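Hey, quick one: can you model this chain's 3D structure?
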Amino acid sequence: MVQSVELLLDDRLDGHVREQWESLRAAGVDSQARVRTESNRPHITLFVAESIPREAEEAARAALSGVEVPVHLGGVVLFGGRHATVARLVVPSVPLLELQARVFSAFAQCPGIPAHIRPGEWTPHVTLARRVPADRVGAAVISVHRTPGDPAGTANRIRRWDGTAKQEWRLC
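Sure thing. Here's the predicted structure for all 172 residues.
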């Protein structure tokens, strides 16, 4: 199962994304709003690996503390094939790209890192819905663009997500 390091959004931007989740659900698209756990929150995945040892976390904490990154959501992007993942791109600012490179460097020795997470290959985004059938993609895109509000804010918290145990904890 996936192990990840994720950047969490400020309250206002988190609320904006949650509004988009609800808008998608109202449009008949099975959005991230369907997941009713406390740990389900809008985020930007900075790093993914098969496993992340605790020692690597401890070493990374000092390099990642005090982070505050401006975040501006861009257009809608689709990942996948027959069933799409619908997401909002995150405009790749220099501070965001530098943070992702630091995170990658801190965890680069972990096993099972997918190629798309490497600096220069990474696409920053916030997931809105997964496994969207092709005939619902149009409704999803329209729904996202109808959500009012400014999709900008900051991110200043980093968490670890253990997909096997379904647990989260703060790194900084």
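One thing worth noting: The longest helix spans residues 11-26.
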